[in-house]
């Protein structure tokens, strides 16, 4: 009996599970899923958990149940490719015949002194809970600094504004205009929303140091009672320590079939994989579809295609609180209530389909 081990219960490996179960798994293959939590987490909604506008239960989805699925819990310490096993610090190793590594990402602090020690994170559900406790116990008139004005920073700042109208919120953006990689019309809309809702944006920011209660922008100290870091990501520590080829961002270089060059039994999905798009839940799911095709063909001893079609991503949707949003769908910028409704609908469909 072969054992397919899925490391991490994120978006990519959830898609692998739902494509193979209940009836697309060969009779001689079982699946072991390893995760630190007993449920799948909707990472795209961590900003709302931290802001206090949704409950913890709202962003949890149960893992599927099946006789051939064994769910194991633990903190992965190392992936031993040579001996084909997953190592832990507090339990026995788990062997694999094939594995899909989906360990996600961590904050990247860009060597800014004090950033890791003195800021809060929303990269995991535990970190988001910790940020929620700190943010929602602040007294009236306190100041929150959010470093990084990408999608996570923008959504956290807007959701926190709706949750805590009494707080002073400062959003540090390294660009001349917020969300500068998006069409200008969209960026201007988001910037105007923040101005109208009394969120201070510091453009062209360069954070040089962080201390307790202080953010140094171009070496000028700015006071903040809580500082949240949303200024970049990197692959998980386990993947960073793997002795395999990586790209300039530290993501694992793969074959066109998403496995390690020279090892057809190890696949990497999601944030840790070197792909021609920015990491996202949508990308992880699209990649997982192709990984399943590769696995099924190899299990049947069938030849693999030379390459798979390019990923067709549908776009990006972001929220500005519960009533407004922005997005880029089929290269068309959307602003206002429609993209917010679209995002809410997609979230409902995802939970309804996977839950």
How would you characterize the overall build of this protein?
Belongs to the NADH dehydrogenase family. Its cofactor is FAD. It comes from Bacillus safensis. This is NADH dehydrogenase. This protein has helices spanning about 10-20, 45-50, 115-120, 125-135, 150-165, 185-195, 235-240, 280-300, 335-355, and strands at about 1-5, 30-35, 40, 60, 70-75, 75-80, 85-90, 95, 100, 105, 145, 170, 200, 205-210, 215, 220-225, 225-230, 235, 260, 265-270, 315-320, 325-330, 330-335. The chain has a six-stranded mixed sheet, with no helix packed on it. A four-stranded parallel sheet has the order 13-12-11-17. About 30% of the residues lie in helices and about 30% in strands. The protein is α/β, with parallel strands linked by helices and about 350 residues long. The protein folds into two domains: about 1-35 and about 75-105 and about 235-300, FAD/NAD(P)-binding domain; about 110-230, FAD/NAD(P)-binding domain, CATH 3.50.50. Strand 22 (about 325-330) and strand 23 form a beta hairpin. The mean pLDDT is about 95. The protein is built from nine helices and 23 strands.
